[in-house]
Fold each of these.
Amino acid sequence: MDLLKIRGSVGMTGTDDIDNTYQYLYEHVYNSGLGYNFGENQKAFSGIYEGVLGNENVSWEKELQWNVGTDMNFFKNKLSFTAEVFKRKRTDILLPRQSLSAIIGIGLPPSNLAQVTNRGFEMNLDYRNKINQFNFRINANMSVAKNRIDFMDEGTPLMPGCARPAGKPTASWVT
């Protein structure tokens, strides 16, 4: 054995970059210009109305990630092996709320409505050698990753077949 390295890392990051429509998700948005008809002659007056409710409790999406791996070299560094396992948990994912009835007539800003876990492993095996003037290299790698929706606002789907239930992979669609 020429090399044995064990490595690991852990970290948390955050983001609020989901939509440029509402720069400040905690603020109420007001619109103007709609006509309201009043009186016997139904004269139109301009007005201001609430376009989107604010969410004072909104926070950044958070992602906690850790990984552990090893690097090994053998036979004068001709054969190398790398392996790594990882887990990534995203919480407070910002999504548009689906569980609000359209009868209310007002939109809600994105809210912290989901949690997703990703986990998996990666392996790489590499062989390098030289025979006279001929250099060659053989490499094989494998990667497996699985994800699961731990929690998601599961209101009435906007269209049939468009629900993503908790406990299933993020690519799952249920009718």
Amino acid sequence: MFSGANPAAKIAKLKEPTNRLRYLSKMEIGNILGACDARIRPLLAAALLTGMRRGELLALTWANVDLTQGIIYITQSKSGMPREIPIVQNLRDILEGMGPQEPAAKVFDMPIITLRRYFGKALSAAGISGFHFHDLRHTFASHFIMKTGNLPALQKLLGHASPIMTQRYAHLSSGYLQDEMRAFNSCMPAGAVVSPEIRAIGHNLDTMAVSGVL
């Protein structure tokens, strides 16, 4: 049996790339919600429908869930800034089935170790690999931007302090760049772009190239 210091102890662990973006397809979302234990299904659904972080979900109390106004209030977040998240109908149905309860009571009263265990089992049962709980947040953001293309709204929903953090989802919007180019094009003087003078310059350059001057 080997004894002594672990020879691999000094080897630096590889960090996960900061630009990692793993999200579930619609089919995978259905698979994991169908495969997960009933005790964590409401929490997973809430993560997928709000983009809230795990810590925010586990800390959420009924005092910060306003079913009348349809708003979840997040008072403490990673960025340090409070934010509001509208409650969509699918989530409303889930929350109304659970409560409301006493204001101080946790909405998702579950030890993190229990969540980890059941989440891992759900991933295995659904045949999903290379996926972390935080990727549920990416899943929300990715599907939101693919549907709406609204980066400023997504930034507010996710509570990003900087728009740079939200920009990572921009490429998922099929119409995002087209919209930006249309906005750019609208500010350009169309007549000047294709004026006779410019056409003449182009013709002269072609003539000079053929004659060997260029």
